[in-house]
């Protein structure tokens, strides 16, 4: 559809691996990718679940990018990384849609046509009526915080290796005093984890806490699948509590105490 | 291989998700995609099963496109959507093959080289001897028909959500009198389904009949997997009978009667 | 990242289907693909397992290509097919990295930035200090050999159909006397296999030996999954012994004798 409207468009495929209906994972992928991309028109879609009223939206961002997709929270994390929203519109103008507009394939009929027209030069403001950014649908996300020495955070997404990507940035390690070991409480289980900079510092099968390549905290098993071990399905987003431990032996002795 | 022959070629990857050996699904994807693509040379392959004699063919179409692939029925639905076949040839000319030609990787050695040469300007008629369109291999497909108030049709393909995409166009809903509820008979089971325009009109887990984004009828479960529920494997193409029902309660009372 | 550094770059995605940590399969895919590609800068990565000290390397090859990736054996088979290494360097120069360099995402921070700069014209020699090719990490691979009438070889990779791609080139069939039937010993099992040129010559479900589309020997089941039948997981690389058999009946009689 894009090639039909704007044959010279340079289209990059970022990922087709977002699990069905999993908006938080889509949001996580998008916000971690956009800052590494040139200024562009970015289209993102996660298969919709319930709710017919989901609008298509376009968000112009401070860096110069335009984000295109559904009004379901998917785009807002990326907009924040691209220096915030300068203009939000609803993709309502029939001239910039693919007809007939289907009820179930908005990527083809609404999002991609709008993106192609904007990439070709149509100003975002012509693609539909302006929206107040405060009226956009938000993803519910518990803010990460350190309270009484314990980091309270949440799983942002589980990646294809079964690692738990947390919503807390890596800077929280400093708030915990840069521990070498931590106790992790997640999904009804408590276990010790070693704090490493890279998987290569851990034994095969060892449970670790590290800063991932997006600068966020991440719980994992070296060459294993932590999500399977915890019986977490992809799409699960449980709360996580992390406390520093002075040493591995202290940890093992105090495992019941957490 | 295409880049070696024609470095300036603009190559779009449509899908690598056709299940092995599943020609009907490949045909379904291709015919639903080509009308949204610019006029182009389209290459399609489904992993071959039995039969060594499968020819490579090129089909020039009324809209101006050329279809390239195996002579196994994969291309004919798309050719119909592109205003029919104006010239069919066998891809036999050695100059437009990649040598040595392997026995098992025709996409690399026959289809893509031919496509690249044609995209670069070689007339299709030079790529091999002309074939009579009537000699091409057809996909067996039962035509959809309404008989005594019942729509008789067939599953064209099962998509990745487990929805059953039927070979009957959405216009058949009018022949059934635009019912709000229907009784569906498929794979030895009979069940009521609600007719909706979009998944958002249905409850989570509700079985529905809707017109999909390609304008065809589709049986599904909202946010569920109908194929798993019916114990249908991908690639299965059972017959389907659909009758209008006056109301949900009438349906439930008459479930045994179908 | 490449588009940010070199927007005009023509990027081809070869595959995202290498199983995690499976360097032999990555090596096999890459070496079989590069000879069909135009002269280019090729980037390859397989998710790393243990070991932090893995260097990033760039290999200039005789044909004019540059290979970029980790120093774990992944690139060497491809370099051989591209007429050997003419210059090897470590990707150490900070100017050609993406900052901050993460510990876990070298594709983004080291390999792709280096590739983009080289494609845009930076000489490989400026991207880091020269390495001796003899110091590069090798993949362990048993050489294929015919001894006393038996071909001793190894599974190079198992493909997505469950076929066993061997490291022995097809020319070894001549050393076995171009047999019509062979006895195969692999993973603790011994079975007869028919030597065919194409799957179409075999019955559905028949076990075969053929020359694959890369010119290598391949063990398979026509329309079946040999790896599942042998209880081999993807990534397994067992030894294989193949001997000629005069006929199917001789084979069946002598099955215990192998």
Could you please describe the fold and organization of this structure?
The structure is a homotrimer of 258-residue chains. With 258 residues, chain A is an alpha+beta fold. In chain A, 20% of the residues lie in helices and 28% in strands. The first copy, chain A, contains seven helices and 13 strands. In chain A, the strands form two sheets. The first copy, chain A, has a seven-stranded mixed barrel. In chain A, strand 9 and strand 10 form a beta hairpin. The longest helix of chain A is centred in the middle third of the chain and has 15 residues. Chain A is elongated, with a radius of gyration of 21 Å. The termini of chain A are far apart. The C terminus of chain A is likely disordered.
Q: Helical content of chain A, roughly?
A: 10-25%
**Helices and strands of chain A, in N-to-C order?**
HHEEEHEHEEEEHEEEEHEH
Counted beta strands of chain A: 13
What is the structural class of chain A?
alpha+beta
Share of β-strand residues of chain A: 25-35%
Largest interface: A-B, 23 and 22 residues
**What is the straight-line distance between the termini of chain A?**
55 Å
As an assembly, this protein is homotrimer
Provide the gyration radius of chain A in Å: 21 Å
Instruction: Give the low-pLDDT segments of chain A.
Output: 254-258
